[in-house]
Amino acid sequence: MEVEKKIRKVVKFQSLILSQPQNTIPISLLDTLARRLGLGFKQHEPGAFLLKFPHVFEVYEHPVQRILYCRLTRKALDQIRDEQEAVQAQIPDAVTRLRKLVMMSNTGRIRLEHVRIARGEFGLPEDFEYSVILKHPEFFRLVDADETRDKYIEIVGREQSLSVCAIERVREIEYRTKGIDAEDVRFSFVVNFPPGFKIGKYFRIAVWKWQRLPYWSPYEDISGYDLRSLEAQKRLEKRAVACIHELLSLTVEKKITLERIAHFRNVMNLPKRLKEFLLQHQGIFYISTRGNYGKLHTVFLREAYKRGELVEPNEVYLARRRLAELVLMSPRKAKVDAELVRYRNGFDDEDDDDSE
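RESULT FIELD:
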């Protein structure tokens, strides 16, 4: 099972436990609640799953009821607190990120529910509707759609300085520090192909031409342009690359699931077959599909990572890395009660002398 998938399920179980009275849950209820969450576990698998991560979940016997319960470990609770504090501390940055996200929309507004689903990726707090949107009426307003009950986030005014894309700052650095010709980097992207990727002569020429192809900025209104010509279609395709690049740059970990990118497809003029489109640009994006049976894909911005670590880490990213460390930590390093070992292996008739 891929690490990303493990962490997603761990986070769902954490939320489930924290939503229960006294932040504990009987093991006997896990099967039912896991099915409601749609986690895809078979019978008795949720309990076995939690036992794989003793640094995150603590399974214990209730002193009165004499049945097994599960709660979060102190390390897991500390990690959650650190992440929440990091998210709160960077709310001013989150406001800017959300402003830029809405500005990328071709209508100047984005569905509130789509942002809510992806709030973790953009570093928005759970109460972002109040703490980020309603608290900043000078930047946002919430409106109800005429035809549906959906709410939309609308931008109030467009600040020109926010229309600068992350890739433009990268090009500025390339131009000033490496002495690369301005025309060579004016419309280019950082391209790093994966190891073993074969680059032939004609492919190299095609990439060279594509890097120099002009395109419209993700923040530019293109509604008045004639997009029917072949040249316009090429520019529109490159603009889609720029939109996804900017979208990833606005996330706190420079990654987001493909399914959540799809939520913004219509408002950002992105292609329908997103996965196939991204695979055509493997030097810019990396799609992780290993271990999740093709059901869920995570898209990474290649240039933002080096040896699996974020090049420019932030406090939210570092807090989430601590959860990954707890998930990956060997179970042998945790004190697992013999009662739990018997539960996992199905041996209910062993002595419980070694319960420490």
